Amino acid sequence: MTTSQGSNSHQIPSNPRQKILSGMRSTGFLHLGNYEGALRNWVKLQEQADLFCMVADYHALTTHFEDPEQISRSSREVARDFVACGIDPARSVIFLQSHVPQHAELCLLLSMITPLGWLERVPTFKEKKADLAADSVPFGLLGYPVLQAADILLYRPFGVPVGKDQAPHLEISREIARRFNRLYGEVFPEFKNIIGDEAVLPGTDMRKMSKSYDNCIYIKDSEDETAAKIMSAYTTPSKIKKTDPGIPEGCAVCQYLRVYSPNWESQWNEDREGLRGCMQSKKECIESINEYYRPIRERRKELDDHTINLMLKEGAEKAAEVASKTLADAKAAMRFA
Ligand code: TRP
Fold this sequence. Notes:
single chain, mainly alpha, Rossmann fold, Tyrosyl-Transfer RNA Synthetase, 14 helices, 6 strands, binds tryptophan
């Protein structure tokens, strides 16, 4: 059932200008893994298409419903991270999912035509369900992909830039759209998965970078915080002395060098051949990361709450303009008028 093709940003037709939609859950500050896995690509895409960047605060509730205060705070921080990293609010639309009520309404309509089996088979649902007691699995967690389908379909985008982990969600969105079109008429055009070619950045312990593993370097981290995290990051365990050979493929510091250091190839060779120690690599890694993020972090500090709230208000208005048209078409197709 792999009907979606990965496609590069270069293949976006420019005439008429296409829309691109993507989102991130607001469960905390964004980290370098979020940047490399998604944001860096979004920043490029806004050159070629109308980019809609959504903070998925309703989706954050599926796992954090006990802490709405934290979601609310995180939503603003995620929006701040978006702008600091280069999403330009003058050109792209940055908004909160909860500010555009059309998402909830289309989600309800789509839920009526979505077979339970499609949702029960989703890998992320199965994983999260396994972590919970049987009688405490929220309905919203099961319905997660239906809300995501509404997020996407409301904007009739050319494509959705996401990481590989989101492919099953996009496939369900596609299936829901096809089913809707078959039942009620062509309302939702096909969309593509836009897969960037960015490196996957591991956490400081070499597992996937994730808040729940406490192995993240955050965009908002200070240079000192970044340094402390790199200093204790995972390196080749058998490399104790400088002259011991390293295995850069399995070393977090070397992985960061590959992304942020212009001369990573010689650094990797020296590591492999026992010509450099981990301490030297760590120091250079700290410099490279801090240098790359310095302008981003400076911009981040300048964005006060007032600016962010104003931007989100304007973003919601622009998003609702598009979303309300699509929702009206969907309701008319279903004979709600
Ligand atoms: N599920 C996505 C994630 O965890 C976030 C998301 C919500 C999203 N709605 C979306 C991504 C719509 C793309 C399109 O990263």
